[in-house]
User: Which sequence fits this backbone?
């Protein structure tokens, strides 16, 4: 992956979560869509303010569970009926009630694994580098007591001068240009 050059976005630092949420709501209302909020603890209002309503992990978990159950059931059917049929005590080779318990276990296994790996993939993890770590104030305050709103340069509406004026209208502690 080639290294990107230029500006990643503008990072505004706030002292309280309500200031950050207010700025995020206004940014969303102004048409910014590529932005993110950072805080030392979860702020539920921030997710709503930036318009974050996608949660695809439950769908991945459901699809993984269905795939696991179907895989186990089909594998057991193929093994016991076609590949290695055994006549044990005159019982039928296709005895589907005996296949339910292992299929249930595979359903749970595949659902759990797809939820874990799907969550990691959707979050873009593991991510060993993020441009925000270049901002000194972010490194010192993001996990302690500061709240940040970052307007990303990939947003179609983003213009460095206009975005800076927009963020400064909320009187943040500072607005920092973040480079790649």
Assistant:
């Amino acid at each position: 992956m080639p290294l990107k050059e230029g500006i990643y976005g503008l990072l505004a630092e706030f002292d309280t979560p309500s200031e950050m949420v207010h700025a995020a709501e206004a940014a969303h209302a102004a048409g910014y869509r590529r932005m993110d909020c950072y805080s030392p603890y979860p702020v539920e209002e921030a997710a709503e303010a930036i318009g974050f309503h996608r949660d695809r992990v439950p769908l991945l978990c459901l699809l993984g569970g269905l795939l696991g159950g179907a895989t186990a059931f089909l594998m057991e059917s193929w093994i016991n009926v076609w590949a290695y049929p055994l006549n044990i005590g005159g019982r039928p080779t296709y005895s589907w009630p005996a296949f339910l318990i292992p299929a249930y276990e595979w359903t749970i296994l595949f659902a759990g694994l797809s939820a874990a790996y799907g969550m990691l993939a959707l979050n873009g993890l593991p991510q060993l580098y993020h441009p925000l770590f270049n901002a000194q104030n972010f490194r010192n305050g993001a996990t302690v007591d500061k709240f940040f709103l970052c307007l990303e340069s990939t947003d179609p509406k983003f213009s460095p001068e206009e975005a800076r004026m927009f963020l400064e209208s909320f009187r943040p502690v500072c607005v920092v240009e973040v480079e790649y």
